[in-house]
Specification:
5-stranded parallel beta sheet; single chain; 7-stranded mixed beta sheet
C-alpha cells in the first residue's frame, strides 16, 4: 500500500452529500463551496497532481510563485476547516446505486484498499495526463527544462535558447508565443507538416526551422538539458524545449459512470464532455477542471470547481425540499383520513 503524502482523514460511514474524485484546484474548491454550505463532502485524492514536477505555480494573482504542494496543503486545510473530509486513496470504481424510495440518486465509490463510500452526487475533478512524444531523454526534464505552457513557465525561461518540438498544428501557435520570450528560437518540425505561409512568418520573426527529425535529448554532466541530437547526428544546442503535449483526461475508476468523452481537434487531447457548470449527461455527476477543460490553468480550474460546487448544492437543496414535501404529504395523509372518518360518525 502506498504511503499517503499528506494527512488522510478517515472515510465516513453512511451516505454523504457529495464525493469529489480528485484533490487538485478544481476538486478542493468545489469541496470548499459545498462544505461552506454545510454539505457533507468527501474528497478522494491519489496524491499525484499534474503539476507535481513544477517548482512553483504562476499566473494566479496573490499565489504566483507558490509551490504547488503548498497550495494543495492549504486547500486541504481550508476544506477541513468547514467540516469537509480529505481521504488519500485511489478510486477503482464508481457506480450508480439504487436510488432511494423518494427517487434521490445514489453512487458507490470504491477504493483500491477495499474501502467504499456512498454519495448522493459525484464531482469528477481527476485532471489530466500529459502524453509526451516518445523521444529518449525528454521525459526526465519534464516540468523543468521541458515545458508546455508559456504562461506557466515562460518568464522563468526568458532569453534562453528555446526549441519547439513540434507535435502537430498547435505547435505553430506555441512558437509565436515563445518567440515573445526569446530571440533564440528553433522550431523542430519532427515529421510534422509546415506550410510555406507559416515558414514565411517564422522567417519574418527570425525563428529557425529544422526539418530533420530529433533522435534524442542530450543531458549535460550537471543534469541540465543541453540540446537535441538529430537523426543525421547533428547536435543543436538548446537549454529549453517547449512541447505541446497530448492531454488526456484521467478516467481510471470512472468507467462505470459511462460519461461521454470528446476528442479535441488537431490531436490536442481527449476530455469529458460537459454542459453548463460541468453538468454531464449522467444525472448527479459533474466534471470540473482539466478533466473537461484541458487548457485551463490553476485559477480557471479553481473557479470552475467553485461554480460546479454551487450548482451541486443547488440541486441537493431542490432534492431535499422535494423529499421533505413528500414526507409531509405522507404524514398528512393518514391524519386527514382519521379526521374525515371522525366527522362522518358524529
Amino acid at each position: 500500500m502506498t504511503t499517503s503524502p499528506y494527512a488522510s482523514d478517515a472515510l465516513p460511514d453512511g451516505t454523504v452529500d457529495t464525493v469529489v474524485i480528485g484533490g487538485g484546484a478544481a476538486g478542493l474548491n468545489g469541496a470548499l463551496m459545498l462544505a461552506r454550505s454545510r454539505r457533507s463532502v468527501v474528497v478522494v485524492d491519489s496524491g499525484t497532481p499534474r503539476n507535481a514536477p513544477a517548482a512553483a505555480m504562476h499566473g494566479f494573482l496573490v499565489l504566483d510563485g507558490t509551490p504547488p504542494s503548498e497550495i494543495l496543503q492549504r486547500g486541504r486545510e481550508q476544506v477541513r476547516q468547514y467540516g469537509g473530509v480529505v481521504v488519500f486513496g485511489e478510486v477503482t470504481s464508481t457506480e450508480p446505486a439504487a436510488p432511494t424510495a423518494g427517487g434521490d440518486l445514489r453512487f458507490t465509490v470504491a477504493l483500491a484498499d477495499g474501502r467504499s463510500v456512498t454519495a448522493r452526487r459525484v464531482l469528477v475533478a481527476t485532471g489530466l495526463r500529459d502524453v509526451l512524444p516518445e523521444v529518449p531523454g525528454l521525459a526526465q526534464h519534464w516540468g523543468h527544462s521541458v515545458v508546455h505552457c508559456p504562461y506557466c513557465h515562460g518568464w522563468e525561461v526568458r532569453d534562453e535558447p528555446i526549441g519547439i518540438l513540434a507535435t502537430g498544428p498547435a505547435s505553430v501557435h506555441h512558437a509565436f508565443l515563445f518567440r515573445q520570450l526569446t530571440e533564440d528560437l528553433t522550431y523542430f518540425t519532427h515529421g510534422t507538416r509546415l506550410d510555406e505561409g507559416t515558414r514565411a512568418r517564422f522567417a519574418a520573426r527570425a525563428i529557425r526551422v529544422v526539418d530533420t527529425p530529433v533522435r534524442d535529448v542530450i543531458t549535460a554532466e550537471d543534469g541540465a538539458l543541453s540540446g537535441v541530437r538529430l537523426t543525421d547526428g547533428r547536435v543543436v544546442a538548446r537549454r529549453v524545449l517547449a512541447v505541446a503535449t497530448r492531454m488526456q483526461a484521467r478516467t481510471e475508476g470512472l468507467e462505470g459512470l459511462k460519461l461521454p468523452m470528446e476528442d479535441l481537434p488537431d490531436t490536442m487531447g481527449r476530455r469529458f464532455a460537459t454542459g453548463m457548470a460541468g453538468a454531464t449527461d449522467v444525472p448527479g455527476v459533474w466534471v470540473a477542471g482539466n478533466a473537461t477543460d484541458l487548457t485551463a490553468q490553476l485559477g480557471a480550474s479553481a473557479a470552475a470547481g467553485a461554480l460546479t460546487g454551487a450548482h451541486i448544492n443547488a440541486q441537493l437543496a431542490t432534492a431535499d425540499t422535494e423529499a421533505a414535501l413528500g414526507a409531509a404529504r405522507e404524514q398528512a395523509g393518514p391524519l386527514a383520513r382519521v379526521s374525515t372518518s371522525a366527522t362522518a360518525t358524529r
